[in-house]
Q: What sequence folds into this?
């Protein structure tokens, strides 16, 4: 993890795609912090601890991609704060689909945006059946409509002339 001013620059693994994923990382880090503090207190009181703390795959991937250690309380607190800052400032690409999309496709889309547009791109997913097919992409600076609805609207005159030609041939 590197820092630019007060903003953290994280490497996002493929398992972290949306702001919801970032929220889950924050929640899991908070839970991990609580569990470690509780475990340490119980061990100081003489309790024997046999259960191991487990991390989700996205959190494991995130920590590994950023070479982060979370053994110390202050490291965990700092990471939680930086994740909160990142969540509010990460570049978001809004992608609207005509039909529900699977997680693997979202990961591919996020990877493409991270490679071509910004390495910390987060995807916000929407569903709009009126698109008929295709996708609608919105960033703060651009709107791209790759839907069938837009294609049909863009060729309305051709469709009308073809329909009229069909009527005239009857």
A:
């Amino acid at each position: 993890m590197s820092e630019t001013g007060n903003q953290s620059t994280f490497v996002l693994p493929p398992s972290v795609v949306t702001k919801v994923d970032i929220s889950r990382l924050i929640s899991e880090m908070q839970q991990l912090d609580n569990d470690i503090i509780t475990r340490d207190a119980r061990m100081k009181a003489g309790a024997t601890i046999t259960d191991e703390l487990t991390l989700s795959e996205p959190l494991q991937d995130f920590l590994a991609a950023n070479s982060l250690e979370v053994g110390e309380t202050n490291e965990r607190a700092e990471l939680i704060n930086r994740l909160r800052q990142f969540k509010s400032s990460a570049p978001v690409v809004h992608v609207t689909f005509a039909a529900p999309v699977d997680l693997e496709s979202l990961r591919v889309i996020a990877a493409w945006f991270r490679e071509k547009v910004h390495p910390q791109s987060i995807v916000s997913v929407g569903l709009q059946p009126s698109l008929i097919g295709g996708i609608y992409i919105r960033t703060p600076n651009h709107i791209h409509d790759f839907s069938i609805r837009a294609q049909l609207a863009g060729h309305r005159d051709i469709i009308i002339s073809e329909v009229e030609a069909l009527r005239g041939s009857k």
In short: The longest helix spans residues 19-44. Helices lie at 19-44, 57-65, 73-89, 103-116, 148-154, 156-168.
